[in-house]
Amino acid sequence: MNLVFATQNQHKIEEVRQLLPKGINVLSLKEIDCHDNIAETADNLEGNAQIKADFVTNKYNLPCFADDTGLIIDALNGAPGVYSARYSGPKGDSEENINKVLREMSNKSNRSARFITIVALNTTNTTHFFKGIVEGHISMERMGDKGFGYDPIFIPKGYDISFAQMSLDENNKISHRGQALHLLIDYLTKTL
Is 33 a catalytic residue? Predict the structure, then answer.
């Protein structure tokens, strides 16, 4: 089965390909010759994931899944939240996003945060949603050089290292995206 993952992020594609069972071939947007910039205009993670999945399904008539992730920081009243990818501006620069969070958190004692990922799967005229959450806190500085996005400043609960210091296998076992993808995989395995 061919299944499109509606993302331009090659790190995410690699994570998913490592997780999915044989028989499910994940295609990137590039591989289906989709170079459109799919606007994420919803005010929640579910809406943005569905916008991306619907775009591919409607334009290419292919089964598709998409995700949206938000970093929810308690001391910042839930920011960056649904705007995590564009927190420092419309370019979506991860380094600038991290810089902005670290600046805003510089005098905060409450550093608790969570990552939430929502995956929307479009199959035969139906959308299914899968959710993953990981609790943790924001570090004082960048730690590690693996991963992407806010991984260098997020330390999951029960760990003293950031997501950016973990191997891909370890990250996939506990991460918000890994949780949501495992639910997706369970669903696909049982229904296909």
Answer: no
